[in-house]
Each structure stands twice: as C-alpha cells, then as structure tokens.
Amino acid sequence: MDVFDGGSNQRPKIKWNRKFNWLGYIVLAIILVVIAGLFALQLITDYIWMDTLDFSGVFTTILTSKLLLGVAGFVLFAVGTFVTLFWIRRSYLKHFQSSQLPPLLEKRKIMMAIMLGISAVVGLFGSSIIQGVGWESALKLLNHASFGQTDPYFGLDISFYLFVLPMIELVVFVLLGLSIFFLLVEMGAYSVFHMYRMSRSAQLHLGITLGVIGLLLAGYHLLQPFGTLATNQVNLFQKSVVEGLSYTDEVVNIPKAYVLAAVALLMTVWMIIKLIRGNIQSMLTPIAIYIGLAVVGLGVSVAVQNFVVSPNEFAKEKPYLQDNLDYTRAAYDLDDINEEEHPGNNSLDTEMVERNAGTIDNVRMNDVRPLLDVYNQVQTFRTYYEFNDVDIDRYEIDGEYEQVFLGARELDTSSLPEQAQTWVNQNLRYTHGYGLSMSHVNNVTAQGQPEYMLQDLPPEGVLDISRPEVYFGEQNAPNVITNSEVDEFDYPSGDENVDTRYEADLGIPMTGFNRLLFAINEGSFRMFVSDQLTEDSQLLATRNIMDRVNRIAPFFTYDQDPYLVVRDNGSLVWMIDAYLTAENYPYAEAFQGEANYIRNALKVAVDAYTGEVTFYAAEPDNPLLQTYENIFPELVTEEIPDDIRSHFRYPTDLFSIQASMYGTYHMSDLEVFYNREDTWQTPTERYFSEDIEMEPYYTTMKLPEEDEEEFILMRPYTPKNRQNMIAWMGVRNDGEHYGETFVYEFPKQRNIYGPQQIENRINQDSEISQELNLWAQGGSDVIRGNLLAIPIEDTIIYVEPIYIESNNETSLPEVKRVVMAYEDEIVMEANFDAALEAMLNIVDSDNQDGGQQDDPEDQESEPDEQQDPSQPIVEAEGQLQEFSELFDAYQEALSEGNWQEAADIMSELESLLEELDLSTETDMPDDMENASDDQSSDDAEAQDNSDN
Would you say which domain of life the source belongs to (predicted)? Predict the structure, then answer.
C-alpha cells in the first residue's frame, strides 16, 4: 500500500513537470521567433530605405559579404568546438570505467545535444566577430587597386600593406586565438587525474593543438617584418626616432622574426615526433627554447638600440630618415606643395590697396559664433525655427566674386507649444524648415549687425530660391510623413500660415505591407491605423544628413561641418566632405591612432528638399577610391555638375592635419629634420576671452602671381616655442586649381609679428585697452573675434573685430570696433574702412598728405583767403577749454555708469560743433576730430544702454 501511495503521489508531479517543460519550450520558441523577426524586420526596412535612394546594391554587397563571412566564422568556430568536445568525451570514455564517470557523460544523445548547443553558441560568437570585423577587409582584398608605388625595402606595392596584409593578419590572429582557446579547454579537461600523462588520446589531442599553434606562430613571425614598416616601436620598451623601418629593425628585429618562425616550425615537428614516441616530458623542451629565444631577441633589440643606435643615432638612422620623410609626405599629399619666399616688406600704400580691392572688400568682419546668435534672434521669427550653424562660402553676386555667410532655417518641433505637440503636428503637419539667410562677410550695419543679402520669409535678396523648403538638415529631426490628408505647414505669413504639399518621390511609400513594417519599426500603432494617410503618403526617414550618409556608406569618415549651397536652379543642397583613411602606410607617421593615410577623395551632396544623396569623385585616380568603386560600382558618380564643383571647399580638418604634418616634414635636410631644428607650429590667438589654437580660415584674396581674387583656405605658422610668424600655408579652392597647396616662407633674419604677438600688443595698447575696459565696466561683455592675417602682395596686415554684447540672454552681439595692425602700428576704429584709412594715414602719410595739399598756383591766385596771422586766438582757446571740460565730464559720466547724463553731454558737444565756423572746423586738430567721431559712437552705445 505504501508503494502504491508513493507511486500515486509522484505521477501528478511527473505530469506537471512535463507540462512545465512544454510551456518553457513554447516560450523559448516565441522569444527566438521574436528576435529573428525583429532582426529580419530591421534588414527588410533598411533594404527598402536604401532601395528608395538607389543604393540597394551597396546594401546587398555588404549583407552578402557579412553572411558569407558569418557562415565561415560559424562553421570554423562551431566545428572546432564540437571536435574538441567530442574528442575530450571520447578520451574520457576510453580512459575511465563506467563506474568512474558521471552517468550523463555516457548518454550519447544527451551529450550530443549538449555539445551541439555549446558549439552553436561558440559558433555564433565567432560568426559575429569575423563578419563584423572582416567584411570590409575581405572586400578590399578581393577588389583592391594598385598604388603604382613600392616600398623601398621589400619592393611590394603599397596596396599590399593597406589591403592584403590586414586580411592575412586577421586570419592568423583569429585562428591563433581560437587554437589557444581550445588548448586551454583541453588542458583543463585533461588535467583531471593527470590524464595528459596516461591517456594516449589526450596526448595526441594536446599535441595536435600545440602543433597548429606552432604553425600559426610561425606565420605570425613571418608577417612581423612587414609590420616594421608602419611603426616606430622597435621593441616592447623602446621607440625609434624613425617612423617605419629603423636600424634596429633591419639588424635585429627582422632576423629575429625569421629565426622565431623557424623555431616555431621545428618546435611543431619536435612535439609531433615526441608525441608519437610517447615522450611527453620532452615536448616541453622546444616550448622553453622558443620562449628563451624570444626573450633573448628582445634583450638584443634593447641592447642594440641603447648601445649601438643611441650613441650615434643620426648616423645609424640616416638611411631610414629619408624614407620616413618621403613616404609621410606622400601619405598626406605634401609632395607637390609650391614653396615660395615672402619678403614681408613694409610696402602697404594707397596704390596697393586699390590694386587689391577684391581682397580688401572681402576681409571678414563677422565671426561664426556671435553671428549664429544674431541669426537665431533676428531671422527665426518663430520659436520653432532654428539656425543650427552658419557657414562660409563664395558666390558670383551681380557679376562680383563675393565671400558670404549663410545658414539654413531648420524646424525644431520640440520647440512647439506643449499643447501643439500632437502626433499629427509632429508627424504630418510640421515637416520641414524654410529658407536661409545670407549676409556679407565684410559689411555691417551702423548698429554693428550683419548686412543681409538674403533674409525674411519667403527669402528675398540677391539670389532666387526656388526650393526653400528644408526637409533634410543638421537637426536631429524625427521621421515625418508627407502627402497625407493634412496639409503641411510651409511658413508663417502675417497672421496666417502658408501650407504646401511635398512634390518629390524619394520617400518610402506608405502602401500595402510597407505601412505595417514601418509602423512596427517606428513603434507607432497610430501610423498603422491613422485615416490621415493615403496611397500618396511617403515616409521621410533619417532626415539628419550626417546620419543619412553614415547609414548609406558607413565605411567612409565624414567631416562634421556640412555647409549649405544654393544651386543655379535655386534649390538647396548640403555638401559634406568624405575622407578615405587607411593604416599601415609604410614609413608614414600616424595622425590619429594608427591611421597614417588620408584623402578627401569624395564630396557628398544631400538635397535639402528631396533627400537625394550623391557621392561625387573629387579624386577619381585615388587608389583607395578606386577600390571602393570596384566594391560598390553604383555608389560613386564621377560627372560633377558645374554649380556643385564651383562650391567645393577644401575641408579645414584635412588642411589642419596636413598643416600639422608639414610643420615637421617641410624640412628637407636630414640632419635638420632629425634634430627638429626648424619645426613650425600652429599659433595661438585671443578669441572671446581665452587664448586658443588658431584655426584655418577661408579668405578671398589675390595671389601674387594671379590676376583675380580666389577663395583660399590658409593658416599662419610660428616657430616652435616662439610667437613670430615664420610662414603661412594656403590651399586654393576654385576651378582647376582646386587642392593646389602652397607655402610662403618669411625671411628668418627679420621679425614678422605673429598672431599672439599682435594680440599681446592689442592688450598693451593703453588707448585700446582703456576703451575696452570702459565698455566691459558698463554692463556689457567685450568679445574678441578671430584675428585674421591678410596677405596682400608682398606684405601682410592683421584685422580683428571687436564685439559688444549686453549681459542678458536676449542681447545681440554687435561689431563696434575693428582693430587693424600693420608692422609696429595698431589702430582701432568704428569700422574696417575707417581703420584702413587711419592705417594708411600713418604708413603712407606722404601720399595721403599729397592728395590733400592745395595746388601752389591756387594758393597764389587767392592771397586774400590766407588767414591773418595777427588774428586773435583767445576765442579758439576758450572753445578748446570748453570742449575739454565737457569731454572730461562725459568720460566721468561713462565711468560711473550714468548713461543718460553722458548722452546729454555728448548732445551738447555736438551742438557746439555745429555752431563752429567752417574754417574753424577745418583748422581743428586731427586728434580732436577723431576723438569726437569715436565718442559719438560711444554716445550711441550709452544712449542704447540708458534706454535698456
């Protein structure tokens, strides 16, 4: 009865366990289906999105390569794991009796299932590694183009180091890592009861694994000599002065690698022989020899570097320094830089200014940071509009070549009133920004604000904008649906809003299965059930232009400063510079991490209205670009429209990298290069309220050998640890001369003031510093703009705008003064023209005076108009005394912050000036007249502050 009761008590429990197991299987299956479904959903929606932009070939090429590599990785890792586990189990079954083993180990079906499960997990892990890391290297290996240039030591084409070697190293490292993993598993398994001593099967298993590791180590060492050409690391502890192959590499490291490769092969053969003979103890001997030789090789490398190279480093490294110099120049495209001497003469005069009117008229009087604040306060009109950035470019305006600022007015739906942030408004109605603003770089209004060339809604000005809608831009805008039952808001007009409909067809059609797929992908049930969507509705996805191009071609590196371009047909496009970078370029110094090769071979255009993306080949002959074209034949377009090419800008990031490298690699004398005797560096400047490294800047200027002005990107150089200017580097941007880089070097025996020296002199000028401090004490912030060095023929001038900004959130930065420096002279005036005139009065006084002197014949013909020397001067002295007292009272009022009183005093001064006789005004001292002009501007400021 007890047996019956016990059995009856257990039967329901068994049934419950089985039900629970089936429920677990169902839940697990559902989870797997959901994961697979989400993965498939992402692939399908990505493909549809890429297909609407005609880049489906890029998607399928990448997906196919990842799948093939993933399958290969899965098979390699899974099969290797299964064989290892199977062999371990078999060794256990052979070595132990059944009573000594866990019962589970003898259950073949269960063990097979467990081993297959573990193998699948390891296989998935290996698959993700190989397909994630290796797909691009594999495609480059199979489709690479030749550089047509070989390295000086092995005589191999550069493409071997950039495309072939990385893939071979990847395969060797993966196999070596996998083999070491298997060896650790085997060592753990066979250490039980010292099976590695007694089990023939265990010994054979360990021996084969060690043999594979030995072969892979030999392969690794055979690859090491090629790696010496792309690093300055000569051993674990030391670096060489040479980038690439060095004396220690050639004499010690390369022979050592070949020796260790041979030892690894002999070690493998030795272990296999000893394994067959059953002499397990002696299998450790070749391992010890290998480790010993590796340590000895390291010691020899350290000794040679310390005791042979270091005492006479230049002589030993001289043959390799030239290769380092030549190949670094080639890697950064510094080979063809045109080097010229710049005399740095004191030759500025009126005639030179007239000859270079185009350069003078395009000197930048605004800076991007304060200008962006002005755009966002003056040209947004509604709270939901925002200018994300202000860019600089050049245009033909009424036949004149002019440099301009411009920015797009984008839409930020998060700034809508809270009650208006509905699903319909955020997804169907408020879909795009509108228009742009454009302003002169060199002109400001009387109030110090930018002088606009395009402004307002809809945009009006010097250019006709046919497509002002900005659906795609720099904002992180959410996905929207166009052509629904809801009209799209276009722009505000008075008390009403103007509506529009999207007319392009590059969105994703919201019809059929697409609607369900993208509703799930967007996580929006409303999208699936909304009756506002029609058969014409389109989903505009990934509207941030940087995310857009990265989603299409993630294998390129993109400049983070896109800029807006107005095409000839009035449409707007965003231009993005794409960089092609590589590692392992022989003998080249790295600019970031291990990357030591860079080119701006691609320009990307993204239409602000349609979202169409076009990759233009800026350097069709570049081998790395040709390799990508072989991989993705439909990706790159080589025919570039003229209105796109005319707005190509040489990117500042690339120019900064090249300029930094050239600061060291301009030296051609090897001994000077070795000692870094003539290193150039980036100067510093005072920007806002801190000293920062000077960034490259665009300017419009006429080069000495050219007849017309052109768009130039430039940057000055100063010697290392000094502040005088030693040279300046520029690159041309226009027409067939695009990308031509040049350097003008100043005489080393003369001092040419550098940017920081000019900044220091501005700080030390008593009159300028006093006036700036006065403004700063009056409830305003003084903002120092970018200091620009402007080369004009054989001389150079410095210009810096000074901004005044009130201490409140809604203040507008205003250009109130312009500082100009030339040689030993510094002037500060209300605007650029006044500053230039004041400077010319100083440096070209003869010419200025000559233009103002009367003709002697006229003087003789009008003797009666000469002033009588005996005329009393008492009245003039009284007037001067009165002016002096009023002026002192004005300054005292300003210093105490009594703006209204200061304004009243200045009004009285102006009234007195108006009462003066014309002849009295003419005879007034120049310094008094200039002071009056300057203080009039101060009075306007004071009046503004008093009103506030």
Answer: Bacteria
